[in-house]
């Protein structure tokens, strides 16, 4: 059973029946208060915190350091996902979580939250990591930051010449 951040709403193409008040409550919740629930869920099912962090990095682009910073800062769920560089393959996440098809959720923030719920659920169910991360043997599906080119790299390293 997925870790639902909101009560299940009626099935449909959007969150019909879910009040804005209930939706905004999760948006303003700190990600640090939700994260331990994810850790508990995956560890109870024999998976690790490191695997969970890998899933979060795949979806959001946040490495261990960035994730730790968000947890320490008490970043809200809304700000956490607003600052995320969502994996371009996130749209491949399909299925039902909390009674709602994730691919049919109209609200972009709620859809991102449900994407993470779905990935955590798949991880906890024992699905192979390459399946959870929608990767193939060719490496497609990996989350990479945009290539800024050689000049940007040189500037970042302090060598503009």
Plain-language structure description:
This protein has helices at residues 20-27, 31-44, 49-60, 64-73, 77-82, 108-124, 129-132, 149-156, and strands at 96-97, 100-101. By secondary structure, it is mainly α. Strand 1 (96-97) and strand 2 form a beta hairpin. Helix 2 packs across helix 4 (64-73). The radius of gyration is 17 Å and the shape is globular. 27% of the residues are buried. Mean pLDDT is 81; it is low at 5-21 and 138-156.
Shape: globular
Q: Write down the secondary-structure element order.
A: HHHHHEEHHH
Structural class label: mainly alpha
Helix share, percent:
40-55%
Could you tell me the mean pLDDT? 81
Binned strand content: under 5%
Structural Rg: 17 Å
Widest sheet: strand order?
1-2
The number of helical elements comes to 8
The major sheet is characterized as:
2 strands, antiparallel
Distance between termini? 56 Å
- In terms of per-residue confidence, which ranges show pLDDT below 50 for 5 or more consecutive residues? 5-21, 138-156
Number of DSSP-assigned strands: 2
Topology:
Blueprint: H1 20-27, H2 31-44, H3 49-60, H4 64-73, H5 77-82, E1 96-97, E2 100-101, H6 108-124, H7 129-132, H8 149-156
Antiparallel strand pairs: 1-2
List keywords for this structure.
161 residues, mainly alpha, two-stranded antiparallel sheet, globular
How would you briefly describe this protein structure?
The chain is an all-alpha fold. It has 8 helices and 2 strands. Strand 1 (96-97) and strand 2 (100-101) form a beta hairpin.
């Amino acid at each position: 059973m997925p870790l639902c951040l909101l009560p299940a709403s009626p099935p449909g193409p959007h969150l019909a029946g879910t009040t804005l008040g209930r939706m905004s409550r999760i948006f303003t919740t700190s990600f640090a208060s939700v994260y331990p629930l994810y850790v508990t869920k995956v560890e109870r099912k024999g998976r690790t915190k490191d695997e969970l962090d890998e899933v979060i990095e795949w979806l959001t682009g946040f490495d261990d350091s960035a994730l730790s910073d968000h947890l320490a800062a008490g970043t809200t769920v809304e700000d956490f996902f607003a600052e995320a560089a969502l994996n371009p393959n996130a749209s491949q996440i399909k299925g039902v979580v909390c009674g709602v098809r994730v691919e049919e959720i109209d609200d972009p923030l709620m859809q991102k939250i449900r994407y993470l719920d779905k990935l955590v659920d798949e991880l906890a169910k024992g699905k192979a990591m390459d399946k959870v991360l929608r990767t193939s043997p060719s490496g497609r599906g990996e989350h990479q930051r945009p290539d800024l080119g050689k000049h940007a790299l040189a500037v970042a390293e302090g060598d503009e010449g």
